[in-house]
Amino acid sequence: MEWLNKLQGKIVGLDTAPLIYFIEENPRYLQVTDAFFTALLFMVVLLFS
Predict the structure, then answer these.
(1) Which residues pair with 12 in a beta bridge?
(2) What average pLDDT does the chain have?
(3) What's the CA gap between 32 and 8, in Å, rounded?
(4) What pLDDT score was predicted for residue 48?
(5) Which of 17, 19, 20, 28 is 20 to 30 A away from residue 49, measured at CA?
(6) CA 18 from centroid of its chain's CA atoms
(7) Burial 6-23 (b: 16+ CB within 10 A, else e)
(8) C-alpha distances in angstroms, 49 versus 2, 14, 17?
(9) Rounded distance, CA 39 to CA 34, Å?
(10) Do the Cβ atoms of 4 and 32 come closer than 8 Å?
(11) How many beta carbons lie within 10 A of that of residue 39, not counting itself?
């Protein structure tokens, strides 16, 4: 995902909604949230809330 590559090595602020979509496995956002939180897991993106 192009947008995710642009975030590599950056610090990203996160609102509550994407976290809720991820936890609830919302089918509308699942592809995006899975990719983002996988990147977070492998520390490609740094996060603050």
Answers:
(1) 47
(2) 84
(3) 15
(4) 61
(5) 28
(6) 7
(7) ebeeeeeeeeeeeeebbe
(8) 23, 5, 11
(9) 9
(10) no
(11) 18
